[in-house]
Structures are given as structure tokens and as C-alpha cells.
Write a structure and sequence with these properties.
The protein is an alpha/beta fold. It contains 15 helices and eight strands. Helices cover 53% and strands 14% of the residues.
């Protein structure tokens, strides 16, 4: 088979895949158009066997990946200028399909992206966004908790205090960091750092990515609930600007204990919830396999929380998720931090505290 024949065959396969994707999308829209019809006719299938929504999404993602692979192979095979122009057009169409796919993924899929092991953590953002970082260790009561990183740094030529969750990359690091689940000494260390920032009038920048506070017996013995509650009260009346970015999982009180801020932002594929979907499903249905249903019901995505005015903005991510390009993710976060610090710097400590108080007092009033 000649190169031209191979090119024609690739184009034919690509058109067939595109038609299949469009057909699946139309069928899915038709399935959701009638809320009262839940029969087998509403299931999108690639074969006579019925598929779950997760299987449909995976099939669509595999089809998009196959299209990308074909376009790359066509680029190597195309011998003419017309062929190159056609391939460039195909590449744009595939990129549009992928953008559309990630713009409309489910809450459960966003949760998987938020938990991706290669997602950037606090130490990555410190390296990419700040200068002259000097870490602060210990809570001056019990010990140092590696699950929370704190320290002084410079951001755009101005001194700031950085506080953030840290999960760890490999198994050894995750065990050392306790999988990002802080103990009481971690929250007390964070509070000590923020109080130090208040003493020297430095704004605080917080990065949140944790499943929640550590639920072990030793943590309970040392006052886990008291440490979280104390942080909530003290951060609410800290007289310096606090800007929070939820970069992965924002789980329960373990996240909220360091996320009381004047501005709270979320990365596009991060989540923020009072409980994990698995935990919610286990309580509500006694069945952890219903976690997908729980994820939708809990309204854990950035879009849901922005609609309920629980956060102040959504930070876009690189196509495919923050783990695809940590450097670009940091660049996308940077203007949100800079703009917020500039706005909050115009307020007096009294205005800052009054605004923060009103912000949290108004949360949840739509339930009344």
C-alpha cells in the first residue's frame, strides 16, 4: 500500500470515528431530553449490550484519543501540501472535541482528576510562583506535621506567608506526609505561621489539597476537633489578607481549617465538599459503589460552588487537567493571586475583618 493509499484509509477511519462520536452525542442528548423516561432506549451503546454512563464516557474518551493518534500518524504519512492542510484541519477538530469533552465531564470524573497522583501540590506552586521560600517547622506544642507546609516567601517583590497541604509523590513520600491528612500539630503549625504573618503584616496565601483531617486515634487524643475549631475562629479574625486556592481535593473540616479566606478560588477540576462521595454513599445507601450518584448530589465541583456563591472564582486548567502542565497551571493561578492581593491591600484591617465576616455569614442563606 502506497503512502497516498494509507492516507486515504486513515481519513476514512477518522470520518467513521467522528460520525460515531456525533451519533453517541445526539443519542445522549435525546436520552436527557425526557426526564420521565429511564428505559433501556435511553442508553447509548456501541453494541447491543447496554452501557453505564461511566462506560459511555470512557468509550468517548478512547475514541478521541484514537483520533489524535490517527492525526499524528497522518502527519507523518502526508506527502503533499494539501494533505498537510487537511491534517491541520483535522487536528483542530479533534482539539475541539477534546475541549468539549473536558468541559462537560461529570462530577465523578472531576473528582478523579482532582485526585490524580501527578497533580501539582504545594511544593510545586512554591517552586513555580514564589522566591526565597523559607520553611517554618513545628507547632511549638508537640511536633512538626509534614502534611502541611508553611513558610515565608516573596511574591512579585512583596513578602507573603505560604500555607498548604502536601500529599507526596511516591509511596515513601505519601507515608511521610500522611497522604496530606493533617494531625492537630499540623493545624496548630498553620495557625502559628498565620499569626506570625499577622505580626509582620504579611498577607497569607493558602493552597488546599487534602482528603480531610487525619481520623486516627492519636490525632483524636491530641485534640483534632479542637484544633480545627480553634483555627476557624482565629483565621476568621486574622487582620491580614488571606487568599485561598483549592488545587485538588478540599475535603471536610480538614480543608476548611486552613481555607477561611477573603478570596477563595478553585481550580477547574478541583472539588470542595463536606464529605467524600464514597463516605456519603456509605452513609446514605450503605453502598460505597453509589459514589458517582453521591458526587452529583453533593454539588462538589467548582461550577456548582460558584453558583451557590461559596467560592469567588474558578481558575482554568490546561486541557486535560492540571497534571498535564503544572507550569501552565501555576501561570494561570498567578493573576488570581496577584489581583486579589492588590484589591485586599486597599482595605484597612477593620474593613477586611468586616468583609470576611459578612462573606461567611451569607453562605448557605439560600437554604433558609
Amino acid at each position: 500500500m502506497t503512502k497516498r493509499e494509507k492516507l486515504r484509509e486513515r481519513l476514512r477511519r477518522r470520518r467513521e470515528r467522528k460520525k460515531a462520536l456525533k451519533a453517541a452525542k445526539l443519542a445522549e442528548r435525546a436520552a436527557h431530553s425526557d426526564d420521565n423516561n429511564y428505559g433501556d432506549d435511553n442508553v447509548v451503546t456501541a453494541d447491543p449490550a447496554a452501557q453505564t454512563p461511566r462506560e459511555k464516557e470512557r468509550q468517548r474518551q478512547r475514541a478521541i484519543t484514537a483520533l489524535e493518534r490517527d492525526v499524528e500518524e497522518l502527519g507523518r504519512l502526508s506527502p503533499t501540501q494539501e494533505g498537510n492542510a487537511e491534517i491541520e484541519r483535522l487536528r483542530r477538530e479533534v482539539e475541539e472535541l477534546r475541549r468539549e469533552f473536558f468541559a462537560n465531564i461529570s462530577a465523578w470524573q472531576r473528582l478523579q482528576l482532582a485526585r490524580h497522583p501527578q497533580r501539582p501540590y504545594t511544593d510545586d506552586f512554591i517552586r513555580l510562583l514564589f522566591e526565597n521560600f523559607s520553611e517554618i517547622h513545628g507547632d511549638r506544642h508537640f511536633s512538626d506535621d509534614p502534611a502541611i507546609v508553611t513558610g515565608m516567601a516573596w511574591f512579585h517583590g512583596k513578602p507573603v506567608m505560604v500555607v498548604g497541604s502536601q500529599k507526596g509523590r511516591d509511596t515513601k513520600q505519601r507515608l511521610a506526609r500522611n497522604f496530606g491528612q493533617a494531625k492537630p500539630e499540623g493545624y496548630r503549625k498553620a495557625l502559628r505561621a498565620t499569626q506570625l504573618a499577622a505580626k509582620f503584616r504579611r498577607p497569607v496565601i493558602v493552597f488546599v489539597d487534602t482528603q480531610g483531617a487525619y481520623p486516627g486515634v492519636d490525632a483524636e487524643e491530641r485534640g483534632q476537633a479542637e484544633a480545627i475549631a480553634f483555627n476557624l475562629r482565629e483565621l476568621a479574625r486574622l487582620p491580614v489578607p488571606i487568599v485561598v486556592a483549592i488545587t485538588g481535593e478540599g475535603g471536610s473540616g480538614g480543608a476548611l481549617a486552613i481555607a477561611v479566606g477573603d478570596r477563595v478560588f478553585m481550580l477547574e477540576n478541583s472539588i470542595y465538599s463536606v464529605i467524600s462521595p464514597e463516605g456519603c454513599a456509605s452513609i446514605m445507601w450503605r453502598d460505597a459503589s453509589k459514589a458517582e450518584v453521591a458526587a452529583e448530589a453533593l454539588k462538589i465541583t467548582a461550577r456548582d460552588l460558584l453558583e451557590m456563591k461559596l467560592i469567588d472564582g474558578i481558575i482554568p486548567e490546561p486541557e486535560g487537567g492540571a497534571h498535564m502542565d503544572p507550569e501552565l497551571t501555576a501561570k494561570l493561578i498567578e493573576p488570581f493571586l496577584e489581583r486579589s492581593l492588590q484589591e485586599l491591600a486597599q482595605l484597612s484591617p477593620e474593613q477586611l475583618l468586616a468583609q470576611r465576616y459578612e462573606k461567611f455569614r451569607h453562605m448557605g442563606q439560600f437554604f433558609a
